[in-house]
Specification:
The protein is α+β, with helices and mostly antiparallel strands. The chain has 2 helices and 6 strands. It has one domain: 2-Layer Sandwich (60s Ribosomal Protein L30, Chain: A). Helix content is 25%, strand content 29%. The longest helix is centred in the middle third of the chain and has 18 residues.
Length: 133
């Protein structure tokens, strides 16, 4: 099992959402999960931002489980949003769902980027992850 310590040093201030400023990791292996979008395993895109969020994190959970890991192994996320008006929806999704995914309330660091578009125009969110095994 990896040793993960999640920090929010006072010198960096409080995080602006459901994430932490830093993760210190001692692990034997790392798992790098490519950006996941809001499609099911058949490639069908979910119809709206909320459904795409749910599918993205379901896909990440499935990727982690395929390697014997879970969200507790995640040490970093990178999130890409196409529309800045979705930031509040993304934060609300994380506030509602992350306590279920991350017991104890220690959330990994997350970098949130606004981009012009994703690989297909209907995609609104993409999230990649790094996990320690």
């Amino acid at each position: 099992m990896p040793q993960l310590k999640i920090f929010n040093p006072e010198v960096l201030g409080r995080p602006l959402g459901q994430y932490s400023q830093m993760t210190r990791v001692k692990a034997s292996e790392f798992l790098f999960i490519a950006g996941q979008v809001g499609t099911d395993r058949d490639g069908k895109a979910m119809p709206d931002f909320e459904a795409q969020c749910a599918q993205v994190f379901a896909n990440l959970g499935a990727a982690l489980a395929s390697q014997g890991a879970n969200f507790g192994n995640v040490v970093e996320f990178t999130t890409y949003l196409v529309h800045s008006q979705d930031i509040a929806k993304f934060m609300a999704y994380r506030t509602r769902e992350f306590p279920r995914l991350f017991s104890g309330g220690a959330y990994p660091p997350n970098t949130l980027l606004m981009i012009d578009r994703l690989v297909r125009e209907e995609f609104l969110i993409e999230v990649s992850a790094v996990a320690a095994l």
